[in-house]
Amino acid sequence: RKASARLPPGPRPLPLLGNIHQLPKDHPQMAFAEWGKKYGGLVHAKIFGTSMLIINSINVARDLMDKRSSIYSGRPRFAFVAEMLGWENGIVVTDYNDNWRKQRRWMVEAFSKTALTNIRPILRRESCKALSSIMNSPQSWKEHIARYTGSAVLEIAYGHQATPEDGDFFEMSEKATVMTAEAGSAGGMLVDFFPLLKYYPLWLPGSGFKANALKVRSFVRKVVEIPFNNVKKQMAMGTAKPSLTTNLLEEAYRKGTLDEDEGDIRDAAAGLYGAGTETTNATMTTFILAMVIHQDVFKKVQEEIDRVVGQDRLPDVQDKDSLPYFKCVFLEVLRYLSPVPLGIPHKASKEDLYQGYLIPKDSFILGNIWAMAHDEETYSQPELFLPERFLEMDQSDGTILDPRTYTFGFGRRICPGKELAEESIFILISRIIATMNISRAKDEKGRDIVPSFDITSGLSCHPKPFDCVITPRSPRAIRLISEAALSN
Ligand code: HEM
């Protein structure tokens, strides 16, 4: 059957180059979704000599990446992000092998239910700091949100409790992660498919991608090495605080595997920073943007928090299940943005046959999460931001697809930080909404500025800068924030 099988349908390739001329520079997820309308849930394209399979349908994604996960859990060679930008050997880019299995086990333990209980106090404390910073300098709200996420991941990974002196480190890591996310667009994809481009001379025209990669690389290497080396020094002096890194280094020392594991521990910890911060920040920034655009939704979700939590304390994890409308807004934010729109590519580690089509060995497999989130058959009027669509989800027992079932990827590679992401977003955003008013900025004539939903393009996406006004909603809220900041 394999001999007679055809490749899945897709746009016609040119000899040698394949479909490279049809690869859009920006927001490829949207163009790939259009291909899906023409060719179906599984689209084949060729980039140079390599097959790229774009999965636009949730059912195909489940059939291949969930049900046949022994074939579809590998990663292709990431010549751009791993080799050029310097995110080498970490769990995110490692192929499906023993090294990945080891790092994956570390991650699953790091974000188990028990571990999350230990992480909660960090999120509570850092969210109070963030609220206080937003209250004092609301124009920098985005930086305060990013600092919240960065501080939490830094403490989980390295046990380091962030101080104002860490500003330079955060700025550098923010640059490393944001630039990585943006750099992973079309140019990066080309290097992955044609790794020889790595050697493209800097003096030739069109070498901008390489110059940019070298700049990002210097930041990435510092983000990978500085906090890890600090932990090692602190361990030697006996002053290290417990963290993922100290636990793993101690375990490796006990087992006598320190030499072989040390590099993996360093890269796995750094991978958390790379994978966990930009995605979570993008979701929280989109939440704020959605509240600015849809002021009626903001009022409704604030009323719900007032009703359930009151105004004398901050919302906390135990309130999550009592806030069904907040949950709907969160799900709609995830769906609308799709923070990692094309997922992280998987690889077919051997030739396969699916619905009569041939899937060549070593094909790049892209799960088009954005297309699944914007599929008209799954969600009516997917172009509209309508949190109410998910009220139905609970009532009709799953007839509306929960975006959490695909936004975090598929199969054995599914995001290990998804519960942490959801919890950290809940804690900070619910607390902002409980204590602040989020409103529209005014133009010079006093009219509302309604921002549009413009997002960046890349491996992970976030909203482009927009105007808004965030202010404490009452003297009572100011008191609550100040007391919470002092007691944490
Ligand atoms: C809203 C926030 C987040 C989103 C949308 C997101 C999404 C994703 C996606 C789509 C993947 C690829 C899965 C696949 O290959 O099928 C992934 C992988 C990963 N994520 Fe997340 N993520 C988020 C937050 C986090 C957080 C907070 C952490 C940890 C601090 C994290 C750690 C990871 C790691 C380590 C991987 C690689 C897993 C592997 O290759 O085995 N993520 N994430």
Automatic annotation (TrEMBL):
Belongs to the cytochrome P450 family. One of its GO terms (cellular component) is membrane. It holds the Pfam family p450. This is Cytochrome P450. Pathway: Secondary metabolite biosynthesis. Its cofactor is heme. Keywords: Heme, Iron, Membrane, Metal-binding, Monooxygenase, Oxidoreductase, Signal, Transmembrane, Transmembrane helix. It is a single-pass membrane protein. One of its GO terms (molecular function) is iron ion binding. It comes from Meripilus lineatus. The keyword Oxidoreductase applies. Heme binds at residue 415. The keyword Signal applies. It is found in: Membrane. Its main location: membrane. It comes from the Eukaryota. CDD domains: CYP64-like.
